[in-house]
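anyone seen this seq b4? input:
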Amino acid sequence: MPTTLSYALGIVLSSFFSTPAHVFYLPILLIFSLALVSYYFRQTIIVFFLLCMTFFFFGFVQAERDEAPIYESTHITRIVLEKQEAVIVGKLARMVLKNGGGCQAQIDVDFLGSEHLDQFLPTTGRILLTLLDTWPKTIAPGDSLILKATLQPPAVSNTPGTFNYRKYLSRKNVYLIGTVRSAILIQPIDDLPAHFIKKIRYKIEQLRTLIGYKIEQSLPPQSAALYKALLIGDRSGIEPTLLEAFKASGVFHILAISGLHLSLLALCLYTVFFWLLRRSEFLILRCNVRKSAMILSILPLMFYTLLAGAQPPVMRSFIMTLFIIIAIGTDRLRSPLTTISGAALLILLVDPTTLETASFQLSFTAVAAIIIITPVIFKLFENPQSGLKLQPVRKQVGLFFLSITAVTIAATLGTVPLLLHHFHRISLVTLPAILIIEPLICFWSLPLGFLSIFLLFISPDFADITLRLGSYGLNVS
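predicted toks r here
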């Protein structure tokens, strides 16, 4: 935990200084060398202090490096510097999302031509296109295409404290935006070569698109839009009034694929694998089937993370879930705060700028608050001097609702300052709303939705039935 906090502090303070990152390379090396020497002589306190200093300066260096990325000369940000018409040759990178009366698509660019260029140039980078029409169904993620669009760099507001759209897109690896007037200007072409990793991502996005189509065919528009948000992370089809209702009641986090979803999926996977492994006497006698069931759950969880779009909140949830599974499997779950600190450190090592995002701050603050505050609330109910009757609470139903209440209160208390800072609003009906809606969605609609994804490839008819059954929980919520 101290190393994570030191690293985060270095990232934060880097924005207040303009010192070049390379200045800190030698101090980091010297401090870390001293830490190794101190470790050899068993000077624990000195090692602790020097390691914190090492991570602090390393966070400073990492943040400075990521704030000024260096792109190669063929990157689209080096070619398109102002608004212009261009012809783009590339691949559809992700599932197409709805956007009002049109749609939005992300394109991996391979070649770009315009009136400012003498010929088509080999190009790298990703652009976000808005089409004021329906996307051609013949072009799926991974398919090659040629299109004509008006491109420009994302606008940046000069007003301090306002939403930075350019930085938001860059975190999604999107560097230009564009508009296509008609679907006629988008045409498929013969497949262009792609790297192995990109081919895998395209295949997963194709599967994600297929699941979205299946959900739309099986359910009415409103239920389909909610189920797509819950299962594959696509909230683009939800009506603004319905989104506002979820936000105003303080339960919008249920629609965002997060730790709640992955924890529930991990529990379902563990239950299935544990039941299967226990069928074998050979395995029971030779290995720990509980830990084996947990380890077997990792690969399906990773696949679902990619299927859900691998957005930053989903990746964070997967890493936190992975850390917890590994900690339990290796008998090292000594402190939950240590586990989530390790997950936070890994995420920030990959992308230090994530520290600035509201979702990162809310995710880890909520989990830390739950770990710290929830036991206090439970002790309040166990205290004989509190005057509270414990008999109903000790029943399973009472304990279930007490758990949800305690977790909700803890998470709300921990995140109120961040909610006010980032969104300037809090909900006064969060607790009753969660007590009603969370069981409906998380213990009815969501498990049936997971089952429908599995059944889609075995028996589409049964997948359709489970989707319809699950939609009843969505409609009631």
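Residues 447 and 461 are 17 Å apart (CA to CA). DSSP finds 18 helices and eight strands in the chain. kinda curious what u guys think
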